[in-house]
Amino acid sequence: xxxxxxxxxxxxxxxxxxxxxxxxxxxxxxxxxxxxxxxxxxxxxxxxxxxxxxxxxxxxxxxxxxxxxxxxxxxxxxxxxxxxxxxxxxxxxxxxxxxxxxxxxxxxxxxxxxxxxxxxxxxxxxxxxxxxxxxxxxxxxxxxxxxxxxxxxxxxxxxxxxxxxxxxxxxxxxxxxxxxxxxxxxxxxxxxxxxxxxxxxxxxxxxxxxxxxxxxxxxxxxxxxxxxxxxxxxxxxxxxxxxxxxxxxxxxxxxxxxxxxxxxxxxxxxxxxxxxxxxxxxxxxxxxxxxxxxxxxxxxxxxxxxxxxxxxx
Length: 313
Fold this sequence. Notes:
This protein is mostly helical. It is 76% helix and 0% strand.
């Protein structure tokens, strides 16, 4: 396992280099000149020339990439051309919000999706299986923004139980924080739970038909032990990988959900930055997101090794 970990770590560096090149290169394809946008309506040529020089926009593309990478290696992601605030500070402000929302959503998804998938697989063809598949179909086909609006109408407008929007730091008021985050977390977790349920059911059906499961049952082992210890543990491989990818997607920013519930996370930050041609912020946020994806994939592989002893050989 240690040898595998070293090999994977050795692939992370070239992957990050390639990702940084793609991020920087594709960013330059966006239409519009950020210097002209910053110059205002008058667009004074002197101001535009000054901004080109300050932002290195008059340099060749490889030189600009070298400036950017050099700053990243020193922990400097640049400054926002709009607010003149450090991109690193913006990331530090927005990332904890998105991480909390992502973890809450994944907790809800795991608590619903995996048990529903196990029950559907064990009771294949029964009413439980039909109900679990109906839930999965509903979760996959329901748009997040529509479900979010309905939940606001019910729990905020009609019942008055939860706030309709906004965000409160858990360090300021934990109860208010959970009240504000529970609805957007459920909206996101609902869709992921549906995906996890389908994959868990499929993996469990494949494992339950294996010879070693029949042998375990023939030995007289308790059915609960057969399902949870022998079947589920061996069915976790695709579920762990899927969970890591879904968590990475959440960390990149749930744009529509954050907009509906007015949550100041990564999603709103990236949308505002794209519309404002704020190249430094876009590049910094996407780089952080790509790095999170790579790290989560590595952690998923390590968790798969821990869950399935056969892979260690």
